[in-house]
Design a protein that fits this description.
alpha+beta, Rossmann fold, Tumour Suppressor Smad4, 6-stranded antiparallel β-sheet, 6 helices
Length: about 290
């Protein structure tokens, strides 16, 4: 099996755990990101063989992708895969691990199941950004969210927002978030947005610190095209797609819509979205339960 692997820098104490993953993957054709390969300098990794890849390269024939780290590492992995729709397994060596759900203790069992083909796919919708100056190049997509926020000033900004060309609202706020169901448990949630079930077919628009009490998050169909015009005292604004960020001015036209591909997260038996909500966010925690 051809397997792609990306991970984050790890401590000396974590090296035996990373080594154990490579022991399980031995005998498969491995393609390691050049960034992660740079962290595999410990002599214990010399007995393993792999090829390196650069982000953006074609992934022809790759049947599985393994992300070793936290949710940020998994989002980086998604940016490497792009529209290839390769199944992604997230092994959590970070903290929360809402997307990278496999714990260290579960890793051996999880890899055994995945390598034997005993898993299903959790298909997640992806946002795509269209902009006049091609802000993020080929990485104009995000699994979590797209945001517009103020920069260089404490003054709020005004974000005129349109749905399929129809005026929705002018948000006087510190910014605005358009989140997928996957991203609804992240930045949007911390700004008062709702939890959205992954297969619901919706996006949520959540204002960041709005200056109007009547403004609340709104859920729209993921078939919508959401466009923006920005103004404020500052001439520069920040936009982000997942972990990628750029500075723009008010002349840039922005439109967000659903991408024509999905991210396939590996879902093992016993691992379900609702269980993750309960375990990671203490959702529904009640002493009566």
């Amino acid at each position: 099996m051809k397997i792609g692997v990306h991970g984050k820098e790890f401590t000396r104490q974590s090296a035996p755990f990373i080594q154990s993953i490579f022991e399980i993957l031995a005998g498969h054709e491995l393609y390691i990101s050049s960034k992660f390969a740079g962290h595999l300098k410990n002599p214990v990794f010399k007995k393993f063989s792999w090829k390196t890849y650069e982000p953006g390269e074609a992934f022809k024939g790759i049947q599985l992708f393994i992300s070793i780290g936290g949710d940020g590492t998994l989002l980086e992995s998604v940016s490497h895969i792009g529209n290839a729709e390769i199944p992604v397994l997230g092994i959590n060596t970070g903290r929360l691990g809402f997307l990278a759900t496999i714990s260290r203790e579960e890793t051996e069992s999880a890899l055994s199941q995945v390598l034997s083909g005993t898993f299903s796919l959790d298909k997640r919708a992806v946002l795509r950004l269209e902009s006049t100056n091609d802000i993020f190049g080929k990485l104009n997509f995000g699994l979590n969210d797209f945001t517009i926020v103020k920069k260089d000033t404490s003054s709020m900004i005004t974000i005129h927002t349109y749905i399929d060309g129809e005026f929705l609202n002018s948000y006087w706020a510190d910014g605005i978030i358009v989140a997928t169901p996957t991203g609804s448990t992240g930045y949007s949630l911390s700004c008062g947005g709702p939890l959205i079930f992954p297969r619901s077919g919706n996006f949520v628009i959540t204002p960041v610190s709005p200056h109007t009490l009547t403004v609340r998050p709104i859920i729209v169909s993921d078939s919508s095209e959401i466009s923006f015009q920005i103004e404020g005292r500052s001439k520069k604004f920040l936009v982000s797609l997942d972990s990628r960020m750029a500075t723009i001015d008010s002349t840039v036209n922005l439109k967000v819509k659903k991408a024509d591909f999905k991210v396939n997260l590996v879902q093992l038996e016993g691992h379900h979205y609702f269980k993750t909500l309960r375990q990671k966010l203490n959702w529904g925690l009640d002493i009566r339960n």
